[in-house]
Every structure is written in C-alpha cells, then in structure tokens.
Design a protein that fits this description.
Elements: H1 5-13, H2 16-34, H3 40-44, H4 46-57, H5 59-66, H6 71-102
Keywords: Membrane, Transmembrane, Transmembrane helix
Length: about 110
C-alpha cells in the first residue's frame, strides 16, 4: 500500500535529526538572547535569529494580532514553526542526497 502524504509527515516528525535540529536552533536562540552580541556565542546565534525573523514575518504576526498579551502562545508558535522548518530542511537534505546518489559518478581529471 503506498504511503500517503500524512504518513510521510508523521515519519518525518519521528526522525531524530528533526528534533535535534530544532533543539539546536532553539538553544542558539536562547543563548543568543542571554549573551552579548559581540561575543562568539552571540554570533553563533545569528541563524536562530533569522528563524525568529522569518517567524515574525509569517505566523508570529498572526499570533500577536490574535492574542497580543499571550507570550506563551507566541513562543509556542515559534517552537512549532522551528520544528516544521527543521522537518523541511531535513527532508530537502534527504532529497538532495538521493539525487546525488542516483546521478552517475563523474571523474574529474586534472
């Protein structure tokens, strides 16, 4: 029986790489908000701040409009957004890896 789109999404959510990437991004965000931006740790948090910026431009604006006083709703939305984006990144990486494995090997001679 062929797998449905929902089955593939559930399988992707079970992938430990998605959970790990989500935790790394959220950890970098928390680390970046607690240290000075001029330190190396602050600079490591830059990708996580890009995630927050993307979130604010999309779902975050909607959540703040619907319930501006609820920080838990806003940060919970950021966690979900980060998780879904991580799942998309891992899925894209898997597709690229499959495409590279299928392509014929090319020898580059100097």
């Amino acid at each position: 029986m062929p797998s449905t789109h929902t089955d593939r999404i559930v399988d992707r959510c079970r992938d430990p790489r998605v959970w790990l990437l989500t935790l790394v991004i959220l950890g970098l965000y928390v680390l970046g908000t607690s240290v000075n931006d001029a330190t190396p740790f602050g600079m490591l948090a830059a990708p996580a701040f890009l995630f927050m910026f993307a979130y604010m431009m999309t779902l975050g604006t909607v959540l703040l409009t619907l319930s501006p006083e609820t920080f838990v709703t806003f940060f919970g939305g950021f966690v979900v957004f980060t998780f879904l984006t991580s799942a998309l990144l891992v899925s894209g990486y898997d597709r690229l890896a499959r495409r590279v494995r299928k392509s014929p090997a090319t020898d580059v001679q100097a």
